[in-house]
């Protein structure tokens, strides 16, 4: 069965973006970025892959699911299909105009359950916090890029956890891998216990 992997950059205090969704505090250089480009090219937007001279092989992920606010910055920059190398799904309760190669779902839980039953590689949950909260009980693996700073406020990794019909209570994960980089970033990987 395919896994839903929440692969996300996060601060020490658990934020994936600033209060207005701003991600500019997260550096885009350093030895951790080199490792990300080499080991996780499927997570890199298609236009960035081209600029960096890399090509995703879809071995880790062949599908991405993201919330509307995660998709919007690309759209604002004139990039209608940011992950053209993957099957792209945008979770939005509202009907919105999308390019033909991007699917919309108003029910991300049902969509993820259907995806998990299909053949393929992993399903990349790119965010944001509200979508992750809605999918908290479907997340099989966490791949966290923990950055050594605090934001103090912003979009929580599971912003609104316990909403969207998810049952309250702890969700246990066990650590399976941890790597530290000279940049201070730690890649921490967990699987559902």
TrEMBL record:
SUPFAM superfamilies: Dihydrofolate reductase-like. Residues 4-186 form the Bacterial bifunctional deaminase-reductase C-terminal domain. It holds the Pfam family RibD_C. It comes from the Bacteria. Gene3D superfamilies: Dihydrofolate Reductase, subunit A. InterPro entries: DHFR-like_dom_sf, RibDG_C, Riboflavin_Biosynth_HTPR. This is Dihydrofolate reductase family protein. It comes from Georgenia faecalis. The lineage of its organism: Bacteria, Bacillati, Actinomycetota, Actinomycetes, Micrococcales.
């Amino acid at each position: 069965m395919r896994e839903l992997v929440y692969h996300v950059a996060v601060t020490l205090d658990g934020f994936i973006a600033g209060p207005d969704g701003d991600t500019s505090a997260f550096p885009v250089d350093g030895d951790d970025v080199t490792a990300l480009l080499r080991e996780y090219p499927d997570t890199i937007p298609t236009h960035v892959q081209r600029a960096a001279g890399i090509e995703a092989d879809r071995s880790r992920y062949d599908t991405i699911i993201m919330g509307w606010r995660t998709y919007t910055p690309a759209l604002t920059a004139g990039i209608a299909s940011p992950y053209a190398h993957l099957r792209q799904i945008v979770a939005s309760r509202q009907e919105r105009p999308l390019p033909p190669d991007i699917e919309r779902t108003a029910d991300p839980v049902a969509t993820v359950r259907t995806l998990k039953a299909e053949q393929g590689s992993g399903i990349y949950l790119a965010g944001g916090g509200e979508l992750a909260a809605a999918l908290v009980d479907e997340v099989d693996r966490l791949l966290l890029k923990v950055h050594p700073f605090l934001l103090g406020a912003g979009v929580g990794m599971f912003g609104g956890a316990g909403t969207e019909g998810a049952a309250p209570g702890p969700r246990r994960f066990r650590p399976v891998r941890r790597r530290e980089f000279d940049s201070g970033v730690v890649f921490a990987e967990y699987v559902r216990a």
